[in-house]
Amino acid sequence: MAKASLEAIRNAAPAVLPSLLLCDFGDLKGEVSRLRDAGAEVLHLDVMDGHFVPNMTYAMPIVEGLRRHTDMPLDVHLMISDPAKYARPMVEAGADMLTFHVEAVRDVAETAAQIRELGVNVGVALNPETSLASIRPCLADIDMVLVMSVEAGFGGQKFNPVALEKLQTLRSEFPDLLLEIDGGIDPTTIGPARAAGCDLFVVGSAIFKTDSYADAMKVLSDQIAAHDPSAEHGS
Ligand code: DX5
Ligand code: ZN
């Protein structure tokens, strides 16, 4: 299971992942189908607990409900204080990738290993002010790094370019590691993120606050295509 969904995510990359934070929660089934029609291949789910971050969103029942309506891989971003505790129910609900925050745990390698044991793909996330050094102990044993370009917690914040340096460093050291960016991604910031070596681009406002998901996805995908990292020698 984990292998197949990881392959599906890798095959989709480079890809825009709509973040289900600013969507219409009264019509999740319709939103999923509109996003699919607009070209989405992977969905990003923002789980917040009102403790690790001040905001609160949703958890297993919504993941499970979405799972019933789509076969798209579900990339679950856990912005919660005790990710290991909720990892199993999240996997049972249908998560394909579980990404936890390094700031939330005491031993990043141990948490990664605990989640890995559940047979799911594992990601580690770090906020803009958190150094890359903090995630190094788990890098050999994870599938993805989520580099936050805003402080986790809310959609609609301003892009922090510190994420670009982290992406560049990770990409040069780990050519095969999946890299994801999240926060403030729009048609102006997605190109630099792609040029820095990013594979997966989480987008909230720049999709959900527009009139056409399809048009928004196209503009973003065109910018990804225009900034192929292998063609841009550090420019
Ligand atoms: C922020 C979330 C993001 C957010 C992105 O804590 O993790 O996924 O929804 O939204 P925008 O694109 O509006 O920054
Ligand atoms: Zn997110």
Automatic annotation (TrEMBL):
The enzyme's first-digit EC class, named in words, is: isomerase
Annotated binding of a divalent metal cation, by residue: H44, D46, H77, D182
Q: Which CDD domains match?
A: RPE (cd00429)
Show the PROSITE patterns listed in the entry. RIBUL_P_3_EPIMER_1 (PS01085)
User: What are the record keywords, sorted?
Assistant: Carbohydrate metabolism, Cobalt, Isomerase, Manganese, Metal-binding, Zinc
E.C. no = 5.1.3.1
Instruction: Give the record's GO CC terms.
Output: cytoplasm
Q: Which reaction does it catalyse?
A: D-ribulose 5-phosphate = D-xylulose 5-phosphate
- Cited function: Catalyzes the reversible epimerization of D-ribulose 5-phosphate to D-xylulose 5-phosphate.
Q: What is this protein identified as?
A: Ribulose-phosphate 3-epimerase
State the organism of origin. Answer: Rubripirellula lacrimiformis
